[in-house]
Amino acid sequence: MTANATRVLVLNSGSSSVKYQLLDMSDGARLAVGLVERIGEETSRLAHTPLATGGGKRERESRIADHEEALRAVADELAADGLGLDSPELAAIGHRVVHGGLKFTEPTVIDDEVLKEIQRLVPVAPLHNPANITGIKTARALRPDLPQVAVFDTAFHTTMPEYAARYAIDVETADAHRIRRYGFHGTSHAYVSRKTAELLGKAPEDVNVIVLHLGNGASASAVAGGRCVDTSMGLTPLEGLVMGTRSGDIDPAVVFHLKRVAGMDADEIDVLLNKKSGLIGLCGDNDMREIRRRIDEGDRQAALAFDIYIHRLKKYIGAYSAVLGRVDAVAFTAGVGENAAPVREAAVKGLEELGLAVDADLNAVRSDEARLISPEYARVAVAVVPTDEELEIANQTYALVSN
User: Fold this and answer.
1) Averaged over 194-219, what is the pLDDT?
2) How far is Cα 151 from Cα 396, in angstroms, rounded to an integer?
3) Average confidence (pLDDT) over 260-289
4) What is the arithmetic mean of pLDDT over 116-129?
5) CB neighbours (10 Å) of residue 164?
6) Which position among 57, 182, 293, 309 has the lowest Cβ density within 10 Å, counted as fewest Cβ atoms?
7) Radius of gyration for the alpha carbons in the chain, expressed in angstroms and rounded
8) Catalytic residue positions?
9) If we measure between CA atoms, which residue out of 316, 317, 335 comes closest to residue 380?
10) For residue 69, with 0-12 CB atoms within 10 Å meaning exposed, 13-18 middle and 19 or more buried, which class applies?
């Protein structure tokens, strides 16, 4: 890597989309951001913003057949701004990979063997790893000479002790089929727990924090001294909190009941629990803003969905308070956590005995900055910390290739 190679391109490849950011790691500046969505559909959309040049957002709609074509379109947009993939200033490409199993506990330079292992994990991440693999293969084809780094969503959670990671099922069966709790949103939990410690003016190893990543997908983690000791998602991202379209925790026997009584097969139950449950299953909406609007208009079904969402959230705050023993902060992050003041207020209400409270005026403030929303007298700090998974991926990628 040359001395002036300080840029990292971060790629987050979904099943029908590619999110990307180009960052300069010398100062953390974002040079370009963008999104390609509806890949493979009749009309795809590419939105690109060249922040380095101060130019406005460029958008175009046309069919983009596959991820290779999408990444080539991204490369063309970057090149138009003098930020092309052939630039000698590009140090590496960092890829978000959802599932790394137990083998990948750190960011990893991708070679053929690493790619094969990510492929072997597809059965436990069928919705995510295939798209991640497609993005990696395409990027390697475009720049075969450039280091490609996988940063795994599961890696931060590999510090969980066995008693937190194991399910209470037959050990031989579990080991044979890699059944255990892996956790997800790890880059977000790592970033937010560290930023929360900074906000408190302490080192991460001196802080115990409960991180609540609340977006369409939602997860909680208990972080003791910078290390994850428990998290709400499990073998897959289905376990845990009530989410936009996922059920979260559910009696496993519901699956058998649906098969025996409703005649549903495995695929139908999978779709039900992952795409037709959670908030959208409860009230027909998975947008918290719309749910709150409906509540304000007296919609009882929306109110019930909100109450179920908050009840589950409180259970995890209480559980992780017990797991940690001492809690220094509870941090809200991601789309709902950062922007929905009523969610933060309701989640903490009634937990005064745990040392939690929010200041109504501070909670009402909208800001892109990390901030405390708890009153000075509160024993446990309550924080809002905007997550930055792309910066976390870029930092981990650059640190690896620099060494």
Assistant:
1) 96
2) 7
3) 95
4) 84
5) 17
6) 57
7) 21
8) 153
9) 317
10) middle
Structure token digits, residue 271: 């779709």
Is residue 3 predicted with pLDDT exceeding 70? no
CA gap 52, 54 in Å, rounded: 6
Sheet containing 227-231, strands listed edge to edge, beginning at the edge strand earlier in sequence: 227-231, 218-224, 208-214, 329-333, 381-384, 371-372
- The strand order across the sheet containing 44-49 reads 58-62, 44-49, 29-37, 17-24, 7-13, 90-97, 148-152, 108-109
- CA pair distance 268, 280, nearest whole angstrom: 17
Residues in the chain: 403
Backbone φ and ψ for 356, nearest 5 degrees, come out as: -105, 140
Where are any strands of DSSP class E within 82-147?
90-97, 108-109
The answer to whether 220 and 242 are in contact (CB under 8 A) is no
What tokens appear for 306 in the block? 């909100």
CA distance 8 to 393: 9
Structure tokens at 141: 């084809």
Task: Give residue-wise pLDDT tens across range 23-53.
Answer: 999 998 999 999 998 888 889 999 999 998 8
